[in-house]
Design brief:
- The chain contains one helix and three strands; from the N terminus they run E-H-E-E.
- The radius of gyration is 16 Å and the shape is elongated.
- It has a domain of 36 residues.
- By secondary structure, the protein is of the alpha+beta class.
- It has a three-stranded antiparallel beta sheet with strand order 1-2-3, with no helix packed on it.
- The structure holds zinc ion.
- The site of zinc ion has 8 residues, from loops.
- Zinc ion binds next to loops.
């Protein structure tokens, strides 16, 4: 997997920390109770998004 340089959209700093959001199991369980198997798709909401935070200005953004 190639690593891309991530820039802060606000100040342009490369001093950013990113982490990947995991599956939303709480929402998935709730969805499963309400909608059975279809509810499991709720767990995928927000999955695989990269959350980044700039260490320079404190801006947070999603990729
Ligand atoms: Zn910044």
């Amino acid at each position: 997997m190639a690593k891309k340089k991530i820039y802060c959209p606000k100040c342009g700093s490369v001093n950013c920390t990113c982490h990947r959001k995991g599956l939303n199991w709480k929402l998935g369980c709730l969805g499963f109770l309400l909608f059975n198997i279809f509810g499991l798709f709720l767990a995928r909401i927000g999955h695989n998004r990269l959350i980044c935070r700039c260490n320079n200005c404190g801006k947070k953004w999603e990729m």
